[in-house]
Give the backbone structure.
Amino acid sequence: MCGIVAYIGDKNPLPIIIEGLQRLEYRGYDSAGIFLSNKSENSTTKVAAKVEDLKLEIEKKPNFKATVGMGHTRWATHGVPNQENAHPHLSNSGDLFIVHNGIIENYDVLKKELIKREYTFYSETDSEVLINLIEETQKQEQVKLGKAVQIALNQVVGAYGIVVFDRKKPDELVVARLGSPLAIGLGKDSFYVGSDATPFLEYTRDVVYLEDSEIAILKKGKPIKVRNISDDIEVDPYIEKLKWNLENIQKGGYDHFMLKEIFEQPQAISNALRGRLLMSENQIQISSLTEHENKFLNARRILIIACGTSWHAGLVGEYLFESFLRVPVEVEYASEFRYRNPIIFPDDVVIPISQSGETADTLAAIKIAKEKGAFIFGICNVVGSSISRETHGGVYTHAGPEIGVASTKAFTTQITVLSLMALKLGELKGVIGKVKFHDYLTELSQVPDKIECFLKNTNNIREIATHYHKSPNCLYLGRGYNFPVALEGALKLKEISYIHAEGYPAAEMKHGPIALIDENMPVVVIATKKGHYDKIVSNIQEIKSRKGKIIAIVTQGDTTVKQLADHVIEIPESSECFSPLFSTLPLQLFSYHIALMRGCNVDQPRNLAKSVTVE
Ligand code: M6R
């Protein structure tokens, strides 16, 4: 995780780096640091706090005109979040500086070797080991900085995105990546570096996304030079044009990114449908799916691999594909899958799902499935992300940047894309008849407007939250397509309000969770009309008999559940298969309001980070 920003050029690096780090704080925010330099002066500032505090700390120091700088916002892996462990780290000579995202797995062995050579370590980090390894390599091999970094990295096991600076070479930055993303913005006689492109959106549209195992030399006033680290071959970098703009990554009048992103869902879903759902032609067109449709139509099995919220979307995908394609589906946690020596058949289709496209376990699981010969079709939000490059084909969700750590619009757009895929394949396979297909398409095309309408009047959700923000626990129940939504609702509450919450298939309640129910237990039940309505009404009766407090998510106009529940939230009517697109919304808002009432940091909950790029 961790966020990296660096700049070399004629502008003042300080505001670029501070603003950039603030944009990257979603990646980690337990400590922050910055290094600034010109040919004669240097300064390093680090705080065991957020970037805002770093800014205040820098303001206390004397000003000087820097021409190069690097900054870091940390999500601790090796060593507690304190000032010593914060980046940038310095080599023993005091000449080399590094910011690092990732984990050096063999750091202990390397550190022991360096200690034998009389190196001293001032932090507990693996990053300080790496910068001293580079220094030692420079000494031993008598090579330029870029070469020394390359030789040192060939001894490293693990993941890294790094920026290295040598005080003796003030016009140069060396950056390299393996498993941790790095974007390089190309300016006029200048370079910007970021863990993603958001730090330099207002400065340049030209970006090079470094590939795994690549190193780039960024010399002021010279073109970028990229080499492959292991085979030492020069690479022609591919320059992409940035599509996101500054507006996409600002709060736009909302108090929090999470709230903005909840309210962006109508637009995000429209974007996910645009050019794919063609109402006038009664068709779904996803070119990459068409290209690989035989893989799907002949698949023995579909394996969906993901983590967290994306895994929940995968569970909805399981219901969709099994209903419409009639192919068995397994949904796997990437972290379990990768270590299980999984059985993969050559006619399996593997679908990784990831918002960031950088989740380390999902990426590793893809590599394993690929090695075993599976066809990989990804669903990602971030264009050009590592996962999107690792797959044989795939679809982007086009949700736009999701900055709040709690996933919202990423989830509903993932379900939108899964719905499009399942419907298209179901139609191709002949499982869905023409009339039904048309009905589904019509319904899907109306989802953004219906969500827009729902979001116009959500005051009751805030009011309901006032009754439960002090509860220590909360249970979420759903059946069928809404079981994954119950899991997602519980995850949202846990991660941003720190209330213990559990999601369960409603019928499983009797096999354990019912023991928890008393007059103090809020139970959120998704009880939409289509699906297993009668069964869920019985579950509600069972909760009521045990005095549990029932918050029911019901279909507009419902009267039965209204008589039983303590609170109801009405959502638009829909087919069961599309109901997660609506039932998720009140659960997102319920968590949001509860977290606010508890004084929690909604966008940056404790201990979490947006992209989990370490396993
Ligand atoms: O970027 P990804 O979709 O691969 O991330 C996976 C999870 O880390 C993520 O969904 C996480 O669970 C959410 N931030 C929770 O809201």
